[in-house]
Amino acid sequence: MEFASVAIFGGLTVAAVVIASVIPLAQAAGLLAPIPLAVVAARTRPRALVTATVATTAVAFAMAGTGAMATVLGSALVAGIVGDIKRRGRGFPTLLAATLVAAPLLGGVSVLLLLILVPLRELTIEALTNSIHGVAGLMHRWGPFDRVGNGLDAFADSIASHWWVWIWVSGTVGTVISLVVAWWILGPVIHRLRDVPSEDTLDSDVQATGRSAVEAGVAPLPIVAEGVGFSYSPGAPPVLRDIDLRIDPGEFVAIVGANGSGKSTLAKILAGRTPTSGVVHRPGLAGLGVHGGTALVLQRPEVQMLGSRVADDVVWGLPAGTEVDVDALLAEVGLAGLGDRETTDLSGGQQQRLAIAAALARRPQLLIADEVTSMVDPEGRGHLLKLLAALPRRHGIAVVLITHRGSEAAAADRVIHLDRGRIVPHPPLWMPDPTTDLDHPAVVESSSLADPGPHIGGPLMVLDQVSYAHLPGSPWEVQALTDVNLTVYRGEGLLIVGGNGSGKTTLAWIMAGLLTPLTGTCHLLGVTGKVTPAAGFDAGEPITEHVGAVGLGFQHARLQLQKVTVADEIMAAGGEKIGTAEVARVLELVGLPREMAASKVDSLSGGQMRRVVLAGLIARKPDMLVLDEPLAGLDPVSRDEIVALLARLRAEGMTIVIISHDFESLDSVCTRRVRLVDGRLLPDSHDVAPLPGRDGGVR
Amino acid sequence: MTMRTVPLRQVPGDSFVHRLWAGTKLLIVLILGLMTWALPSWPALGMVAGVVIVTALIAGIPLGAIPRPPWWFWGLIGIGVAVNASFAGLAGALVFLRATALALVLVGSSILVIWTTPMADVAPAIARLMRPLRWFRLPVDEWAVSIALCLRGLPMLIEELRMLRAAHKLRPVARGRTDHPSAEMGILDLITAAMSSALRRSSEMAEAITARGGTGRLTAHPSGPGRADAVALLAIGVACAIAITATVLL
């Protein structure tokens, strides 16, 4: 846990400092740089702060050189003082006392440095005094400012003769300011972070007893659970109750349940976490992540990538001296030849296959895959399932697949259904035909799209020949969109289908006006309020001048929620006209109880967060909603609710554009479907009937 | 993103500079940094600038990679030169330009390292450079893991900060009533959202580490310095010696 928080929070500090040193006029970011490290200092032991200081200093040096390194070092010292005082629960007087001691000392460091580095001192002092004298000279020319000029001259002379006083005073004042600012920001931030769940919810025997001791006693299978129950804190309602199950070597078992059914908790217990009631029998230790033990592959692909290169990630964390045939493992999971690629360049599906390769490098007896497909496009999902299904036969590994998708469970030898913490005998309602063919997962059932209804009106947004490239003209240029022509009609539901890396997020940002197209235009029509049919064609105005007129929902909902409570959030997102009554109305509109207005944002579940984001967007009364992957990571019940909500909104006249790799369940919202492949828009095979009287589909 | 940022990624290519060990390049940046701090004379700055330009040429960095600062950046430097010259004439302008050049060449040299080195090679190189510190019983391995994870998480974090800024931009700006949540200052909200997201990220990363059975190896194919690195270091040493002599003689 410490490593991770050191790395992530240290990374934030480095990011702030690097931004401040590379981009001119972003120096203000430097004042915020100590905050992340102060959070680390306030939450963990001092040793972690030392590690964080060393790591951030080294990274800052590698990224932006000696100057950034010095800034980071200073930030780390400030962070250490402020964070440590917070951790000990002391108040502002302690900070003042610490400031009185630390600020003069830190200010003295630069004096000391300049005392040694004589030529550097002479240069900076000369440049500084010359500049001040120069400004003073300008002042002398304007009569009324003559006296100011005299003052400046005296000031510059004083700097030249007593440089150390001025350097020392300014260094001290600077340190005081950054200490007080850090303190002032850190207080509320830590207060608000108390509700964020942050703990490593996995238990590892390695941490408890040491790796070599564990390796001797590893034997995870067969595993038998008897009357297992679990609650996250004493007195809290149990997440799991009376679970009895058995998993034998070489089995392929699926555990199916909705969000909140306790299936991820069950995965953690199978991986070695101690249940709060009942017993789990194993012949030996679970040995999570240990050779011959248990392997766990988690839901979010990108956070599991620990190595920078694909080959590094396979061996990451293995004890020194372990021999692994990296190429063979990569070939087995279908990533042959990609060993030298950076892990961040892989698609979500490839990253999950890499995580499986890293698990296989440990030759586990039991592999638990916890919702591994929920962030992966349908094609990648098929590959992953085939790979997992083959493991019991090929290596004799028992595979436990935890999923909310019935279709994925179909390939398993045995399916265990979880409902609200209990094992239930009947398959949940969304269990599909178990004959689903895993080899062709991308095939869409030929469903009909939603009835366009009477609401569809004239064009609302017109994208004309839109192209976009990231970092154009540089060697890193990536063409994201090419000649996209698209018209969004008032009141329609448009589904833009695209896989990972198809440019769909760029398109969403352009439609919201956050990015300006490199070539071509993206115009919002009728913004002036006067639609004159006689004029024939309203050219509209660039959407970049109306940021906010199109509501954009990000895939990662938490980043979009910026206030403490749900009510504040919706009011802030909706604008100053929104009062409590309106908050209650939009909350009910998105299917949340109005009492939720007082809840803290960080205590919400993923599905609830997404709905609050929607509520905020609706409160703003946008002309159009653009939603980026609105269903990713939700279980069928939540998905159905969101889909029903979106369908209702559209029926009431809202224009909705959904950008997703997922086209299974969105047909009831969308009246039209187009496909985005490698930044180009293709007409979808289902979109054969254009809207009457108008050129529908792709222009 | 209105301003073109400097991408901290490798410029694709294969050259003498690309093939150098990452540790050598970091050492060179450190030497050049210390050198200019101790001796910010024209010969020393010229030497560093020369090294930067020669390295960029050898590495085949295309012109398109060089960031184009906005016009006011050059404007500010111009004003600075004019103000200094008005007081101290040509000598004053030169002093000011020397101070500016000092900052620019240092940033230039470290950006070149990032442009010619795969991110994946940086952490192992730093770890190897820190190895002598083990003698002082410092937890070098722990540091190496943290550095590697930090570098690994950096692109992800920058992406999140970008999203955060975009989300903030999409919100309405209220004027007038001050007690409404939409009129409150956003900076605290932004920081909290970033921290909250970072907390989740770090617990996810912690679970990923636990799932691998803790920390251990960092790289599949360890790399180290070779003959080319000795040549490069020697060349830099000679260049430094020449710059020092030139400073003393002039």
From TrEMBL, chain B:
Instruction: Give TM segment ranges.
Output: 20-39, 46-65, 71-97, 104-123, 230-249
Q: Which domain of life is it from?
A: Bacteria
Keywords tagged on the record? Membrane, Transmembrane, Transmembrane helix
Q: Which InterPro entries match?
A: ABC/ECF_trnsptr_transmembrane
Question: Does the record carry Transmembrane helix as a key word?
Answer: yes
Q: Name one GO cellular component term.
A: plasma membrane
Q: Where in the cell is it found?
A: Membrane
Cite the CDD domains for this sequence: EcfT
Whether Nucleotidyltransferase counts among this entry's keywords is: no
UniProt membrane topology term: Multi-pass membrane protein
Do you know which Pfam families this protein is assigned to? CbiQ (PF02361)
What is the name of this protein?
Answer: Energy-coupling factor transporter transmembrane protein EcfT
Species name: Gordonia paraffinivorans
* Primary gene name: ecfT
